[in-house]
Amino acid sequence: DWTSLIVGFSGGCFFVLLAALIASGVVMNSERKVPEGPAEIVNGTKSTRYLYRSDWSVVTRLYRGPLLCILLVFLLGINVRGWGVAGVNHKLIFELDPRNHSSHLQIMETAAWLAVMWAISLLVFLFADYINLPAFYSPLCLMIAYLVFFLNPTKTVKFDGRWWMVTRIVRMILAPLPYVVFADFWVADQFNSLAPALADFHYFICFYTTSDSTLGNTWDLATDPEVCTEGSNWLRPILVSLPAFVRFAQCLRRYRDTRAKFPHLVNAGKYSTTLLTNFISYLHKSLQVQALFYVWCCSKTVSTFYTIFWDLKMDFGFFSKEDGGNKYLREELVYSSTYVYYLAIVEDVVIRFLWAVGVTLKKVTGVPPEAVNIVLQVLEIFRRFVWNFFRLENEHLNNCGQFRVVRDISIAPVDMKDQEEILTMMDFPDGAQQVRRRRKELGK
Fold this sequence. Notes:
Blueprint lengths: L1 H30 L24 H31 L3 H4 L10 H23 L10 H15 L7 H16 L7 H12 L1 H15 L25 H24 L2 H27 L2 H26 L23 H14 L1 H11 L4 H30 L17 H12 L3 H13 L1
Helix pairs in contact: 1-4, 2-4, 2-8, 2-14, 4-5, 6-7, 7-9, 8-9, 9-10, 10-11, 11-12, 12-14, 13-14, 15-16
């Protein structure tokens, strides 16, 4: 299969580039230092510039957001493959065209090429001195290339998949105005796991619109890790809270349409705890009041227990009274081994509470905060990847979100003429039009 070859080739390119990135970063970190100010850099000789590097915190924030998105897309390809093997009908659940939708290999191919672009951009950044290019032009060009790819209006380069995602994002932004379907809330949940990436995108925009973000405004060195990270910056917490607010609004819209307080209002309460936690975090960082830190810890703990309950009981359907002998699970299971279900329970609980480990590492040890953040964020992407398997399985089996219309199906026998018409409508893109034209001709 040609697509398999492309995925293998692009994946191999990425891992080669990644090895080069790791080696280059280690060498640069040991041989270069962060300058204390413009006066420290002597412009008389070109070789003097090679003694310095930018602060790694700045570089991490500029490149981390795209990497998290790429990782989520690649893992989505694995999700699609797993759903197909297990018989979970994701095409029906997402209301996709069964004849024209992205396969798991096409999704992985997209992620692989985006990852190759990311790695090349970071390599150019590291070796910008040798090609006489301002280093911080590289991440800016990368982001522009991503936007051109994603928003390209022509029917080329994965147009159907890109258009599907664009429409879902627009419906997210308009929440609670549009009627909510399964794909709407599912995409919004993916963005909840990408909330830190939204914070990085805010940092990206702020960095490139702030005059003193680079040393001497040369776009070559950035030494101040505090630029655009002040606790009083109100836009950052708003962007981080946006996915939770979208889900909150979607839950209210579902309640309006169904008048079912449970589960929709209770689910809205879950997202309200996330919004409250983010607000308390903003107050703590802006006011620098230690008591607010303890209030935040309490709020975060309540929110974590709430989300774990919802993950396991409502989204996965576990701990059912009728478990059919599958202790702590449910009667019907799609995946072959019951062990994966118990592992999923442990994984969800552990990763949900890793924020407490992160706080401890930042407060007690000397581990760089950005290193802790990126590990926790990657683990959250992995948790969402596992969540996708069991959430779609539960929807496939039980229609637990009540997003699909259930109709009585006629069991009257179908004659050969009707069967031919059904096959025509299924096999041809304009099958319905063909059948209507044929019926009109017979009517004449």
